[in-house]
Amino acid sequence: MAQLVQIAASLLILVAFAGAQRGTLRPASRAYLALNLAGSSILAVQAAQQEQLGFLLLEATWALVSAWGLVAARPQRPGG
Description:
Blueprint: H1 2-22, H2 30-49, H3 53-72
Helix pairs in contact: 1-2, 2-3
């Protein structure tokens, strides 16, 4: 079951990457960042559970950068 979860999470990241390469997703778009955040967060949890520290560092950093990008891409409220 863990393998299926890892494959699904990896596919989220790969779909975002393929979309960026094809020009259908902008790397700064909310969709791209959300796909990366979801996939990398799932993989980070899996890496933590399996004590794979190098993979955990990679995926946790990827998730944090994606989350930061999503916060920065948030629409600004008028007057705020």
